[in-house]
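hey so i finally got around to running the thing on that chain from the lab meeting. sorry it took forever, my laptop kept dying and i had to restart like 3 times. anyway pasting the input first so we r on the same page abt which one it is
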Amino acid sequence: MSVGRDADFMGRALQLAVRAADDHEVPVGALVVSAGVIVGEGWNRPIANVDPTAHAEIVAMRAAALQTNNYRLGGATLYVTLEPCAMCLGAALNARIARLVFGAWDAKAGACGSVFDLAREPKLGARIDVFGGVLSHECGELLRGFFTARRGPRAVD
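ok and heres what got predicted. didnt touch it at all, straight out
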């Protein structure tokens, strides 16, 4: 995939992240692309679904598996606005996602180089090509704005 095409798909993931924010969920959006076609989309829904596993990536991969009628998503690319956590990266590896493209780095729970680097862990067996930082400014700004609004203005010492 070209860098421009990755940015286009990340733009769609950002639109999905806005849907999460509109639902008062942490604004993360994700989509699965196979052969240049979006086969699954998702946004964070753990509160709405009362499901701690309803991260954007999981929701998108579940939709893609249903759409393709296959729990294996080999050859597909997962686009997500935030670096995946260990749970989501593990699911992507188990689904045999070929590529992972993410926007903002997650210094608190990122499993693709920020906190852990599970994508390169040889003991896991499965491999995934990871590309971070696509539209990172836009993805990061959406998250920062959400959390700033949630916390409210802070007093300055």
